[in-house]
Amino acid sequence: MCAKMHIYAYTKIDFVCSICHVEKAVHDTSPSHCAGRNPRDEPDMRASSLFTDLLSRVADVGRALTSSDVATASLVDQCAALLAGRGEATELALARQILDGFGQLDMAGKRAVFTDIVQRFGVDQTALDRAMTQYAADRSAANARALHFASEPRSQELIRRLNRAPAATQDVVAMRDALLTAIRSDPSLRPLDADFQHLLRSWFNRGFLELRRIDWSTPAETLERIIGYEAVHAINGWDDLRGRVASPDRRLYGFFHPAMRADPVIFVEVALDHEIPAAIGPILDAGRTPQDPAKMTTAVFYSISNCQNGLRGVSFGNFLIKQVVEVLRLEFPALRTFVTLSPLPGLRRWVAGELARPRSGMLTEAQVAAVSDPAGEGTLNSTPPPADIALELAARYLMLARTETGHIVDPVARFHLGNGARLERINADADTSLRGQEQSWGVMVNYLYDLGTIERNHEAFANKGELIAAPVVHKLARKP
Fold this sequence. Notes:
Elements: H1 2-12, H2 24-27, H3 43-65, H4 68-71, H5 75-84, H6 88-103, H7 107-120, H8 125-137, H9 141-150, H10 154-162, H11 169-185, H12 190-203, E1 210-213, H13 220-229, H14 237-245, E2 250-257, E3 260-273, H15 281-284, E4 298-306, H16 317-331, E5 337-340, H17 347-355, H18 365-371, E6 372-373, E7 376-380, H19 387-400, H20 411-418, E8 422-427, H21 434-440, E9 444-448, H22 454-464, H23 471-476
Parallel strand pairs: 4-5
Antiparallel strand pairs: 1-2, 2-3, 3-4, 6-7, 8-9
């Protein structure tokens, strides 16, 4: 096996770029993106790599010191040994072995491991009872803290120790991704997810995240991931990506975590324009003529993609937008307007639900008639409604539709309005793609980030549930 690997490495060496370390097949389809780059110009990434290599060497020593009984035990028994251990080398080796073993399991196997962790690594009841007794006798600050720490489930410490392994953070995030899937069929696993969320929110605190511009000189490993992670408007290969990151009137920024230096946590794509756009087509048009960015007055956030599903519920998108606004203002002083062109992913689904509840009162008779299938009462027509009806439906969906807990139904709207944006304009026929038609009949929304009112809008939304929208949107959403 080892000999085969050496032969493979030898035969591949002529097909790897000496600057960006990308296989020639990829390098040739992304011409010149590594021009002028040198790995020695990236000390932070090199330092991170050196530290990972150090941990790997210590873990190699630890593997040799790990007893055969532990090495061959079940994953959950290995987790117990990890919690009981005190040696650094053996701890790193065992944590790495657990993560590798977990990654090889199918979904049923992962679900079983999660179930065992919940059952075996909860709160130490004896320690908690002792701390409660001490606090009852003496309600001092020290005893209060002791009670707090005694109430922590051992599963949290298990996750911490797993994260100490070489290159572990990405695997821990993937582990939580698997947990979210497992919870769909087994809600009893939710307490374990609370442990993951508690730790991930600390580890991915905004203070640890680094904003970077992603351009054509960014390492190919990261660029390839951007292509795969784009969740709003698909990137169709290297030429399409180059148009989004290398054109003078385009920008792409991402947040990166020190433990995942090549893998973005979230990124935003920006188009510089001279007006608020009403459609996505001109922005994505591969044949468009780039404009002079210094003369543009409007920055358009047209795609925001969360890259790590395992970080769902860990919010940092609001910081991303606000920090990018400041970066853009410094680079282009002529910018005056900061606005999104956002999808409306749940519109058609919501309208279909309202048709099934004819007495809900959310839709007018004209709207019901425009979207109903004549052949099936209470179902959507396959033909899109007229543009004026689509705009009314979108406005009513955004302004009036609420979940059972009183929250705005649409997740994109909830995100931007919660960040202090204003619902500025709704655009019909803005997205002609199949996905856009399936989600919202092509309707898209502009959310305006007015720097003078962002914080006030956020406070009104957060404390009073007040949705800030332009008069034209209020007019479209008028009640029957």
